[in-house]
Amino acid sequence: MSEVEAKKPQENLQDRLAQVVELLHRHRLVEELTHRQEGQHHDRVENLVHRQNLVELQRKLDELHSADVAHILEALPLHDRLTVWQLVRAERDGDILLEVSDAVRETLLADMDDHEILAAAREMDADELADLAPELPRDVVHELMESLDAQQRERVRSALSYDEDQVGALMDFEMVTIREDVSLEVVLRYLRRLKELPGHTDKLFVVDYDGILKGVLPIKRLLVNDPDKQVGEVMADDPVTFNPDEDAYDAAQAFERYDLISAPVVDRNGKLIGRLTIDEMVDLIREESESEVLNMAGLREEEDIFASVWKSVGNRWAWLAVNLVTAFVASRVIGLFEGSIEKLVALAALMPIVAGIGGNSGNQSITMIVRAIALDQVGTGNTARLMRKELGVALINGLLWGGVIGVVAGVLYDSWSLGAVMTAAMTLNLLLAALMGVLIPMSLLRLGRDPAMGASVMITAMTDSGGFFIFLGLATLFLL
């Protein structure tokens, strides 16, 4: 696929978003104008205008995939979002609720009454219901569970019994099982009788009469082998399997490593109880990535970009408070050397460079370490080795770029001793940044916390205070 072809769907989606925004703008504009009019035809004109704009908007929404509608809803302010949501056909509500972010889903559910929520939920599979259930009102969940058949109810309860970061919470119950002692021709006839195959069916699961998994039959083997052969002759008897108690992110990494589309989930006795599919794994990886970025920036949770001011304040205040404390500490460090700065004003101009480069270097180190931890490439046992490597990188960068800025400072201020202090301070602060870049995530990991949690805030605090202290301290010792 060419680059132009690859970009076309995304560009098309952005065009549709622009069209929806334009229609909403026209709708509001004409609505305001008609409200100002008076007379016997006012209501008729207003109703006609409403219908013209909203019918066109609904037509555009009907043309879009549920995931694209979800993207548009996330990109709209709350009032416009609810206007668009009211135009979505009821039979599509469930699919779209599953596609939008948690923060946006909360606003959509708040705009629905219990009957609308129940109608949307009844169209979902058991694993999808389990995803949505924690966000629904208790009475709605109770009524929904009562309306399910025994098998569906048991499946939902099973999925809800696992933590959200476990395989069991993500497994799908819709799958095709066959016996190993039947011919491929029998399997083909069986498949033809089904209305449709579950999504992402690239293999059939071979079980015995007790439901114990014996192997898998990839669809491609089913199609290319002699129909008279038995399933047991052509199946793969060593598939990648998962346990419902396993970490879901580990499973996602296995999907990427082994290029899986679906995989069986078995209990401790080897009984097939569900399957994982690639769509769930992709969603999980995306959510994990977003969570990591938010944590590094000190945000407590995902935030609706159009959320209310107070809700956003509640999400962001904690690490800002921490940052305020660390900034105050940095200012006190500078205060210790007020006399030195008064005697050599050049120090005030140069010290932000030392702190800024240190912060950038520390963020590079911490990002590499957090990524390696997320990919299970390193653990706490590698701390010493990683520290030696990062300190080596910092030393070389410090001498190289510290030397460059030292020469520049020496020329600008006609003081080679100032240049030497600048080089030394830059090198020492980069070493401090490298040390903290390893110790912060590794310490958080050892404590059982998210290694990315507030990492960017903490590393910046360390390199700012440390950089100011090192540079001003060296200047006081050797220049004054």
UniProtKB/TrEMBL annotation:
The keyword Nucleotide-binding does not apply. Residues 235-291 form the CBS domain. It is a multi-pass membrane protein. The keyword Electron transport does not apply. It is found in: Cell membrane; Membrane. InterPro entries: CBS_dom, CBS_dom_sf, Mg_transptr_MgtE_intracell_dom, MgtE_N_sf, MgtE_transporter, SLC41_membr_dom, SLC41_membr_dom_sf. Its main location: membrane. Keywords: CBS domain, Cell membrane, Magnesium, Membrane, Metal-binding, Transmembrane, Transmembrane helix, Transport. SMART domains: CBS, MgtE_N. SUPFAM superfamilies: CBS-domain pair, MgtE membrane domain-like, MgtE N-terminal domain-like. The chain crosses the membrane at residues 391-413, 419-445, 457-479. It holds the Pfam family MgtE. Homodimer. Acts as a magnesium transporter. Belongs to the SLC41A transporter family. This is Magnesium transporter MgtE. It comes from Pseudomonas fluvialis.
